[in-house]
Amino acid sequence: MAPTIARALTIAGSDSGGGAGIQADLKTFQELEVFGMSALTAVTAQNTLGVQGIYELPPQAVAEQIDAVVEDLGVDAAKTGMIANIEIMEVIAEKVKAYAIPNLVVDPVMISKSGHSLLNEDARLALKRYLLPLATVVTPNIPEAEVLTGLQLDSMEARKEAARMIIGMGARSVVIKGGHLPDGEAEDLFYDGQEFSILSSPRFETPHTHGTGCTFSAAIAAHLAKGEAVLSAVRQAKAFITAAIRHPLHLGGGHGPTNHWAHRLQEGKA
Ligand SMILES: Nc1ncnc2c1ncn2[C@@H]1O[C@H](COP(=O)(O)OP(=O)(O)O)[C@@H](O)[C@H]1O
Ligand SMILES: Cc1ncc(COP(=O)(O)O)c(N)n1
Known about the structure:
binds adenosine-5'-diphosphate; EC 2.7.1.49; kinase; UDP-N-acetylmuramoyl-L-alanine:D-glutamate ligase; binds (4-amino-2-methylpyrimidin-5-yl)methyl dihydrogen phosphate; 8 helices; Hydroxymethylpyrimidine/phosphomethylpyrimidine kinase
């Protein structure tokens, strides 16, 4: 019998503080009524103030988690987050190809909001070789897109050029997120190699943006798992993250988590 629920897998790091990483992803999957599964790449000791410790898992442990999940439960869409090193990245690329995972969202996580490196220098550039060619959609923030392309992204024209370059690296589509823009709307740029779309929301003045990128990419994966088209998945993810930022929980003394159930307050509208 065909499964009655869409299934999504997150391949990412654990955030003990619950705002980013695997925890944000699984909360998002649950809210969007998708069955969530995880393959951990690293365990972080982390809270809203910073990252106190990082413990990378052996690549074999990542491989076995992906095998266990795919071979039994099945995966309609996967997302990657914190990957930490090239060896783990190689294993993920190998498994995504071997199992022909149908939808892959690559969130090229590099540095936490609190300023800690979550991906070593070599691995940052290896993303282009191993994961971008497999990505249904890649979701860099502005500093990440600058690292991937070597461009300085201080204008819409430059961001469009970066999007073209990222498609040239093999990704099927890209969203350059606008959370790091200095002012104006929180404006994300989507490109699928044919058409640009701008997804805009008001920018909220809030320190509670820990895990925004994780939540956004997990929401895209959830909608892709349900069989939606990429741009539609991205639009719905934008509405989800906007609601989650608009209604903060005021937890912790630093960059607090977003509110994963805020979308329920707004009947799907952000
Ligand atoms: N202050 C904000 N107000 C409204 N939307 C925001 C804000 N900060 C980020 N976003 C949105 O959250 C999503 C994640 O973006 P961003 O914060 O740039 O990612 P990351 O967590 O990878 O740095 C994007 O859709 C972005 O536009
Ligand atoms: C385990 C893990 N994965 C990802 C992030 C990035 O999230 P943010 O940029 O909001 O700190 C993080 N802080 N921790």
